[in-house]
Amino acid sequence: MIMLIYRGIALFISLVVVHCMFQEEEFWKQASATMVIIPLVMRVLLIK
């Protein structure tokens, strides 16, 4: 049960970051958002 909540929170945060990334126009902010998304997606998929 706790793992599902953890994965849900990670998925929610990654979706918010993706949404903000596509609205941002500056390349370096998009690149930093991509660096944040990668570990979050790995946590959702349970990849270490």
Brief account:
The chain has 48 residues and is mostly helical.
Structure description:
By secondary structure, this protein is mainly alpha-helical. The chain has one domain (2-44). It is 83% helix and 0% strand. It is built from two helices and no strands. The protein has helices spanning 2-23, 27-44. Helix 1 (2-23) runs antiparallel to helix 2. The protein is elongated and about 40 Å long.
Tally of strands: 0
Principal-axis shape: elongated
Strand content: under 5%
Mean pLDDT: 93
* Helix and strand pattern: HH
Distance between the termini: 20 Å
By DSSP (H or I, 4+ residues per run), the number of helices equals 2
Estimate the helix proportion, in percent: over 70%
Whole-number total of structural domains: 1
Helix/strand/pairing category:
mainly alpha
Oligomer: single chain
Give the uncertain stretches in residue-range form: none
Radius of gyration: 12 Å
The biggest beta sheet reads:
none
Annotate the secondary structure layout.
Blueprint: H1 2-23, H2 27-44
Keywords:
about 50 residues, mainly alpha, about 85% helix
